[in-house]
Predict the structure of HTH-type transcriptional regulator SarZ.
Amino acid sequence: MICFSLYAASRATSQAYRKLLEPLGLTYPQYLVLVVLWNDGQQSVKTLGEVLQLDSGTLSPLLKRMAEAGLISRQRRAGDERVVDVDLTEQGVALRSELSHIPSRIAAGTGLGSEESGAALLRTLQHLTETMQATADQADAQGKKD
């Protein structure tokens, strides 16, 4: 069953991240927020939620804990106070070097061996995500018609 294999691989990957991040007191979702901010810079809460596929009920408490830990700052946008922007603090920026070993450890953990194999897997998983989301959207649309 493909669904179980995907579920098991996802759980094993999350567990590996959890073990690697635990010494620094970070959770996997917190690490993902940091990665987005390291790579793309300041983001609105809405954009972070879209990129990470997290709803506001999950993301808001996560960001609150990260702000309390001094990793990020949250500021209402001057031109539109409904928008909250999230940015890294100096401490959040500094964590990048402390966590730089994680991507290579995870890559090694895949057992794929080459960068090409990893890139091919990533493309396959991204395609799978897109097509499964389209399938779910179609099921939603069909359910609304019935």
Notes: The chain is about 70% helix and 10% strand. Helices lie at 2-21, 28-40, 45-52, 56-68, 90-98, 102-110, 115-145.
